Predict the structure.
Amino acid sequence: MASQKNESIKTVGHNKFGFDSTVDVETLRSLYLTPVFVKDGSKVENVTGAPAKEYGSESTYDKATNAIQYTTIAKFPPVKLLPNSERKRILVTGGAGFVGSHLVDRLMLLGHEVTVLDNFFTGSRTTVSHWVGHPNFEMVRHDVVEPFLIEVDQIYHLACPASPPHYQYNAVKTIKTSFMGTLNMLGLAKRTKARFLITSTSEVYGDPEEHPQREDYWGHVNCIGIRACYDEGKRVAETLTYGYQRQDGVDVRVARIFNTFGPRMNPYDGRVVSNFIIQALKGEDMTVYGDGSQTRSFQYVHDLVDGLILLMNGDETRPVNVGNGDEFTILEFAEAVRDIVEKVQKDQGNPLAKRVNIIHKDLPSDDPQRRRPDTTRAKESLGWQPQWSVKQGIEEMVLYYASKLAKGEI
Ligand SMILES: NC(=O)c1ccc[n+]([C@@H]2O[C@H](COP(=O)([O-])OP(=O)(O)OC[C@H]3O[C@@H](n4cnc5c(N)ncnc54)[C@H](O)[C@@H]3O)[C@@H](O)[C@H]2O)c1
């Protein structure tokens, strides 16, 4: 596995296009790697080793009663003080989800006014609860298939379930969310003259016949398969987006996101990264579908957030692939996860008695064999490229899931 940068990364973000999105990694980490205390009899131990901060939350899990006590500390992390002319009113739909919550953290730390709109179908209030009560933050429970009125300058439209078990759970609702949700948010952008960014997906390329995939490839999608509710939903959402641009002059941005992983990913969403890490942490067999020769590329969530913010604030209005081009087989990936979990367990003083096995099961239907982004456009028009190696990202995610496991949440 190639790595973009091996030394530890101190800051994320860019200062470009008049929007400074630079933030310290340690500040971001303290929002998802919070101290977790486990009470076992009279012994109380900080199992994550995360240092206590004067802001953020803590929790204590009591093994005897299987109860968890949350402590909210009444100070928020420091946010930038922006002059009115620079402070934007930003709506993030799906802001309580995995990607959305990281975007919200970044926008809040940068000093903007952020409204999260979410129906909590796959997202959770806990992902952004550390901002509740902050004067720059608002959380609204709302379903995007219904119209929503608010005055905003920018809309990041993420609301849509993203993992196959969730988007297939109610396929018709997924299509409604993609179509009607996007229609409603574009209508809002038209009325308020807000800039609109939609998080589309590499799934618009289907099971591609071209590798790597460039933005001008039209895709190879099965319009009646089990993934179609998501793939075709996103394709029509893109069509609507460019319809509003051509007809109504709405200022639009389209990000085609490739597989992304990181802390706060729903542990039960059936995505390969979360499955592997949880199986390995629990000492269970790791399941590879098919022979494991199918390839994937994975990007770490902080890189994606960098890309989304650059795209929103730059001039590129064509679709832009945002993904990590490092391609490797699912089997290689499973082996890397196993090695990193073993390292973290050893560092934390609880190594597993024996190595977990990697086992194989049948491939689900319509599972693409290869998917890898061509990110030339992101590099040329946004000056963006991933800086996190997959291994660095997996280690962060293993620490996060290990703390969830310790407090009985997995
Ligand atoms: N994570 C990835 O690898 C990936 C890849 C490609 C595209 N994307 C896109 O990025 C966006 C975010 O994905 P994620 O991984 O954070 O998924 P997620 O499921 O964690 O987040 C989606 C959020 O949208 C909310 N939501 C769903 N339907 C809604 C509705 N009808 N009304 C209001 N809120 C609703 C959910 O509750 C959740 O908080 C999605 O649009 C997804 O298609 C993600």
Summary: The longest helix spans residues 171-192. Residues 40 and 64 are 7 Å apart (CA to CA). The pocket of nicotinamide-adenine-dinucleotide is lined by residues 94, 96-100, 118-123, 143-145, 158-162, 177, 181, 199, 201, 257, 259-260, 266 (CB under 6 Å). Residues 1-6 have pLDDT under 50 and may be disordered.
